[in-house]
């Protein structure tokens, strides 16, 4: 009888953690779906009452305003869709330059923080403590208003080797204009890079088999110089240089880096490099000091020990937080709205939104773009982190 009574007990009970977990998950999903449906219906109702049409047809309309910097051809009669592409390219430009420069500067400062030289160590410490504790927007405003806008006018610009001209209008420099030999030169560079990769693989295999080292660096430099050099000798120069010339009150020709781009790039680089420096310092310190002693016992000096022993191991600690700093730099580029640099937020979520009134569509597009960029960076960094991770046996 006891067995029968026990068999009649219900199997589903909230006292069961698994059942309770499923119930909570189902209730949560139902609430989220209901809330999403309510917000969607409420938004549609308000848009209809105010006579605001929804949709993405506005992207085909003419923009009707100028843009200070555009990496592709643009006129005021172009569509809002082209404005979106220009804002995206400008965001990617400042993000890519900032990531590269911040990484280089951050690694230098981070290594300097561990220098036995008292002066270098303290200067690096002062750099980190100063720039990482000042909000990035204030740094952007400082570089823009206190540095670049105080530069002289183009007629009295600072000149470097009669080639580069720095003024309140920006940095004017020679522009490389492609010739008929440009694409053959690009192909030769690709072939040179492929030859370097094959050479490095061969040299590594040779070292594993025989223990005889090979001068990979100098061989790679030779390949990168000789193969494109032969192409230039056969086909001619791949580019010709257009020099900036002062005409009237401004320079004509060449390339110009506007003050907004310079201030934004410099501020984001300096700010992010301070955090990267601390990440690099902690990553290096995470490697056991026995590794350094073992390298020195094999005859390696401090420089090769740092490059070939310490940093490769420290990267496993450095990469995850470094990814976060790359994401922060990309998102901080939206602060460019404070100085009028035409990136995604100030150009598309600012000017275009005010002109069209399509707030939901514009904000949704902008958020989706930043989400896609961030996820792409995370994916690439995670793939690299997986590649260099230790494989347990």
UniProtKB/TrEMBL annotation:
InterPro entries: AA_ABC_transptr_permease_3TM, ArtM/GltK/GlnP/TcyL/YhdX-like, MetI-like, MetI-like_sf
Alphabetized Pfam families for the sequence: BPD_transp_1
Subcellular compartments: Cell inner membrane; Cell membrane
Tagged with keyword S-adenosyl-L-methionine: no
Segments forming domain ABC transmembrane type-1: 88-381
Principal cellular location given in the protein's record: membrane
TM region positions: 21-40, 83-109, 130-149, 181-203, 215-235, 255-277, 335-353, 359-384
Annotated keywords: Amino-acid transport, Cell membrane, Membrane, Transmembrane, Transmembrane helix, Transport
Membrane topology type: Multi-pass membrane protein
Family, per entry: Belongs to the binding-protein-dependent transport system permease family. HisMQ subfamily.
NCBIfam families reported for this sequence: HEQRo_perm_3TM (TIGR01726)
Protein name: Amino acid ABC transporter permease
Organism of provenance: Pseudomonas lundensis
